[in-house]
Design a protein that fits this description.
Layout: E1 14-17, H1 24-30, H2 32-39, E2 44-46, E3 53-57, H3 61-71, E4 80-82, H4 89-92, H5 98-107, E5 112-117, H6 124-127, E6 132-136, H7 141-150, E7 154-155, H8 170-177, E8 183-186, E9 197-200, E10 207-210, H9 216-222, E11 227-228, E12 254-259, H10 262-278, E13 282-287, H11 289-301, E14 310-315, H12 322-338, E15 343-346, H13 355-366, E16 370-372
Parallel strand pairs: 1-8, 2-8, 4-6, 5-9, 10-11, 12-15, 12-16, 13-14, 13-15
Antiparallel strand pairs: 2-3, 3-7, 4-7, 5-6, 9-10
Helix pairs in contact: 1-7, 2-7
This protein binds threonylcarbamoyladenylate and magnesium ion.
Magnesium ion binds at residues 157-158, 166.
Length: 388
């Protein structure tokens, strides 16, 4: 039995490894200690199908406070409450309107978060004082087994230091959180790689506040009139989603995002990288397999005049498969940071399907450092304004 949380000083982080392909019963048994830590008010990071989450008992204010402290998260940014069965929804939301029910029926368990009117059972600390609550039922077997074994709803933001790219592996979580949380459950990589889609069901029509693992197109199959939040209200003044006010997904090195036709992007990346390298800088390229292939010979021959820096390439997947790019995106940013690059240049993608979530994360990571070249990639859902 672990010490009562208040007796603990700075946590020593316990690492446990589980096999996500084990049976549900076996997983629940293996996660017994992690579940106990959650019930005792401690913090446990665990894999979900999107990214790793940092969990605490959503009904326990002190546990919630520990999550905010471990992440360095601003108090005004509310958390998502994770559940393992539909029954739990009734105690978290004060009402579940038919549209929300239809989305839950279609996409749960899975990467969709519903904003619903909050019930009194959920402490204000979870929702940052809002009268709405974010709820999601994850499909990852380890997340599901942990929530079930804990027997409480689990509040969990992404398990990164606030502002950093979300973690998609246990190594990422360890890098950010070792010594700050009680336990890390290593259950392999989080495959989708971008966070859940957050949709506000308290307004009509429903509004996507954050594009993510379930696409706009999929949601419109259920609710055709669904809209996507656009407009720059996030930076000052009240934001629809408080999370939009804050710095997000940023690698340590400044990232520049190149937008336009693919060939023109590749040319721009070459000339910018060459100029930086001549200044003796280490340049990180966050690019697709196809772009990396195009750059390969060129990189070997580049440089030569004046001091010569270095080019480090993080290949994140095929341009023709957005799910690969989503899956490799945050890992690519973290790999380039680990290589201590001075700056990053990122390629952009078509903003349809999963591309919308990818472009949202890239735009936010670039924080306004956009280089527009000939032609526009994607569609009008992506503008600098829509992502701040
Ligand atoms: O995939 C995910 O959603 C991951 C995994 C761990 O489940 N979680 C995650 O949590 O990304 P977090 O805290 O990093 O992002 C939650 C987002 C924030 O932008 C927050 O502002 C928004 O959801 N949010 C939470 N409650 C809200 C509410 N009541 N109204 C509007 N936005 C809300
Ligand atoms: Mg986050």
């Amino acid at each position: 039995m672990s010490d009562a949380p208040e007796k603990r000083g700075k946590p020593t982080t316990v690492l446990i490894v589980v096999d996500p392909s084990g049976s549900a019963e076996r997983l629940e048994a293996e996660l017994g200690e992690a579940a106990r830590v959650l019930r005792d008010g401690g913090t446990v990071a665990f894999p979900t199908e999107t990214v790793y989450g940092l969990g605490g008992n959503a009904l326990d204010r002190r546990a919630v406070a520990r999550i905010f402290a471990a992440k360095g998260r601003p108090q005004d940014n509310p958390l998502i409450v994770h559940i393992a069965d539909m029954g739990a929804l009734e105690s978290i939301a004060s009402s579940v309107l038919p549209g929300a029910r239809a989305l839950a029926d279609r996409f749960w368990p899975g990467p969709l978060t519903l904003i619903l009117p909050k019930s009194d059972a959920i402490p204000d600390e979870v929702t940052a004082g809002l009268d709405s609550v974010a709820v999601r039922m994850p499909s990852h077997p380890v997340a599901a087994a942990l929530i079930r074994a804990a027997g409480v709803p689990v509040a969990a933001p992404s398990a990164n230091i606030s502002g950093r790219p979300s973690p998609t592996s246990a190594e990422h979580v360890w890098h950010d959180m070792a010594g700050r949380i009680d336990m890390l459950v290593d259950g392999g990589s989080a495959d989708i790689g971008v966070e859940s889609t957050v949709i506000d069901m308290t307004c009509s029509p429903p509004m996507i506040l954050r594009p993510g693992g379930i696409t706009l197109e999929e949601i419109r199959e259920v609710i055709p009139e669904t809209v996507v939040l656009t407009g720059g209200e996030g930076l000052d003044g009240p934001a629809k989603s408080p999370g939009l006010r804050h710095r997000h997904y940023s690698p340590e090195a400044q990232m520049w995002l190149v937008i336009g036709e693919w060939d023109a992007q590749v040319d721009e990346i070459k000339s910018r990288a060459a100029a930086e390298v001549r200044l003796g800088r280490r340049v990180g390229l966050l690019v697709s397999t196809e772009t990396a292939a195009k750059l390969c010979t060129w990189i070997r021959d580049c440089g030569g005049e004046g001091p010569v820096g270095e080019i480090i390439v993080a290949e994140i997947g095929s341009r023709n498969d957005a799910s690969q790019v989503a899956s490799g995106l945050f890992d690519g940013m973290r790999r380039l940071d680990a290589a201590e690059v001075d700056m990053m240049l990122a390629e952009s993608y078509d903003a349809r399907g999963m591309g919308l979530a990818i472009m949202n994360r890239l735009m936010r990571a670039a924080g306004g450092r956009i280089i527009r070249v000939q032609g526009e990639a994607g569609n009008d859902l992506i503008s600098e304004k829509s992502i701040e």
